[in-house]
Amino acid sequence: MHWILTVPDRFSLPHIIRHSLACEQFKLLQPPFSVHRGMEHLHRVERLQSGNTVDLTLSQTPAGLILRTKERLTGTETEEISQKTRRMLRLEEHVQPFSGIAHRTPGPEKGALHGEHLLRGATFFEDVIKAIILTHETKAEQGQRITWIVDRFGDPLPSNPTRHAFPTPQQLFWGHRIVSDMFPPPIAGRLIQAAEKFCATAEEIEALSCETFPTDVLAAELVQLFDFEPETLGLVMLSLGRYDYIPATPCIQPIPTD
């Protein structure tokens, strides 16, 4: 089945795919995402609240963003995928706060972070886990580590069990001994701590990520909750669409002067 989402006039799915692949330090396009057909189609395996795991394909036409699944979905499942797609592609975000600060900032920090053109996860938990791995592993190992997390703990796609959804906090926490064997102790500890926090206070954390707290307050709350280091915090804040927070990452590009 398929359906169409309306997108902003300047939205470009191929541009988001290319920009997510182009970051100098982080491999941002990771499982359960994959790309085919000349970077025109984005694929993802997604576990739904109903317990079903589906194969989602995203493509863009002049009519809008086309969402396709091989599975038949209920109305509730269709709406869940639509909402997750809006989050993953940042379809309802505004970057003016960051752009205004960037334009007023002198010196080498003057730049525009093209965060609105970067993929993020379907959930805040996915963003946190990926941020920990991306900021603590070398670029050569980032993809292998995230792929291992997905394949080892995520629900398999029934039509192709070699592909998996991103794991839930419970799935990752239940496998904490395996995580400890796979990752260096400092990284394993951060991953397990994050999964445990989400298991214990999932609703509070999700509410925190959705609230309109001042940026500095939110950053402080996240550091207290997860003990994030500066670079990890920067990537997490970017995933939350806090464009008035300048992350400590190299994915910053100059603002055109014309």
Reconstruct the topology from this structure:
Elements: E1 2-5, H1 13-22, E2 33-36, E3 41-47, E4 53-61, E5 64-69, H2 75-88, H3 96-104, E6 112-113, H4 124-136, H5 139-153, E7 156-157, E8 160-164, H6 169-174, H7 176-182, H8 185-210, H9 215-226, H10 230-239, E9 252-253
Antiparallel strand pairs: 1-5, 2-3, 3-4, 4-5, 6-9, 7-8
Question: Which features does this protein show?
Answer:
two-stranded antiparallel ribbon; single chain; alpha+beta; 10 helices; 258 residues; Endonuclease III, domain 1; 5-stranded antiparallel beta sheet
Describe the structure.
By secondary structure, the chain is of the alpha+beta class. It has a single domain (2-253), classed as Endonuclease III, domain 1 (Orthogonal Bundle). It contains ten helices and nine strands. It has helices at residues 13-22, 75-88, 96-104, 124-136, 139-153, 169-174, 176-182, 185-210, 215-226, 230-239; strands spanning 2-5, 33-36, 41-47, 53-61, 64-69, 112-113, 156-157, 160-164, 252-253. The strands form three sheets. It has a five-stranded antiparallel β-sheet with strand order 1-5-4-3-2, covered by helices on one side. A hairpin with a 5-residue loop joins β3 and β4 (53-61). The longest helix has 26 residues, at 185-210. The radius of gyration is 18 Å and the shape is globular.
